Amino acid sequence: MPVFGIRKPERRVVLRTGAYGIVTNINGKVMIIQNKLGKFLPGGGLMPGESYEEALHREFLEETGYEIIIKCKLETLSWYIDTPVEWFMQVFNTGIFYEVELVKRVNTDIEEGHEILFVDGESATDMHSDAQMWAIYKYILSKKYPPIIKTNASASEDRIYPLRLAARCIVQTEQDKIILLASNKLDMCGLPGGGILRGEDIRTGAVRETREETGRDITQLKPLGASIEYSNMLQLTYYFSAKTAAASSTIHLTKLESDWGIYPVEVDLDTAEEMIAQSKGVIMHEGFEVASMSRARNLAALKIYRQSLDTDLV
Q1: Which domain does 116 fall in, by range?
Q2: Which positions ≥6 away from 204 have C-beta within 8 Å?
Q3: Residues 241-266 as b or e (16 or more Cβ within 10 Å = b)
Q4: Residue ranges in the chain assigned as alpha helix (H)
Q5: Could you tell me if 111 and 165 lie in one domain?
């Protein structure tokens, strides 16, 4: 079982066990609770003598006012989260996640300071817990963004993982070329994209990152899938296909990207696959060779993209 978050050894740890529910409305939006500490899936810690199911029924009534049906148990996850600054502690929470169905709302007098939100899963990028963002992907968004590759999975049980969300695009130009980002200095190339900002919709992040790195605005985003990469973190990368017209703005690279000498190139699909496959660059980070994992997931995304083109022609 992977453990999410970051352990801060200077803080005392408090153990907690809880139950949490994943529920969507008729529009496919996920129910989230927001309070002064942040955003959470409905649920919480067990009271003495309670079963997990009993705790989940109680928490839903207290936080949402809804009676529920527990449809099935999903999985158990553990994570570290910080308490308010003045307490200077961390909670190590082990939670069982359930698929839940709302029955009816029997109480509008919910816990003070709690607000019920229904949001697109793609917008749930600022949850208080990394584990809950992972659960939203695994049990909601994976239907729309199926896993296309999982790298270094053998190490998945042995580390504490911060979760990094990213988005990348296979951008088709008006000349039916694919835009890659290349670096002669590193002997590497890949697809445009990067990390999602906290609270940023995944699709918005894909558009922003592509514009910053290529100077292009993109439209017609279509989900291709997601890659799951275990290294010093768990990186969940959402892949899209997209189209673009002429260059529209100045390229804005990060300092690291500038130091690497990254620049955009336009090539046909066969050449794009060949260039990525033949990249020889090596980047080590905390004992993990991350460049090879990047090559693998980009090639997997291009394979899915090629299949989508073939399907469109049928």
Answers
A1: 3-141
A2: none
A3: bbbbeeeeeebeeeeebeebebbbeb
A4: 52-63, 130-139, 202-214, 255-260, 269-277, 290-313
A5: no
State the chain's mean pLDDT as an integer.
Answer: 90
Same domain, yes or no: 159 and 130: no
User: What is the per-residue pLDDT across 181-193, written as a single tens digit (0 to 9) for each?
Assistant: 998 888 889 999 9
> Where among 141, 173, 193 does a domain terminate?
141
pLDDT value of position 94: 95
The verdict on 261 and 114 lying in the same domain is: no
| Domain count within the chain | 2
DSSP state letters, 181-217: EEETTTTEEE-SEEEPPTT--HHHHHHHHHHHHHS--
CA distances in angstroms from 26 to 52, 118, 236, 251, listed in the order given: 26, 10, 26, 41
DSSP string of 142-190, one letter each residue: GGTS-EEEEESGGGTTSSEE-EEEEEEEEEE-TTS-EEEEEETTTTEEE
- Higher pLDDT among residues 3 and 239, named by residue: 239
Q: Tell me: do 75 and 49 sit in the same domain.
A: yes
Q: 3-class SS at 41?
A: coil
Q: How far is CA 38 from its chain centroid?
A: 17
Q: Which tokens go with 228?
A: 């799951």
Q: How confident is the model at residue 255 (pLDDT cuts 50, 70, 90)?
A: confident
Residue 71 and residue 203 in one domain: no
Residue at a domain's end among 141, 168, 190: 141
In whole angstroms, what is the distance from residue 294 CA to residue 311 CA? 26
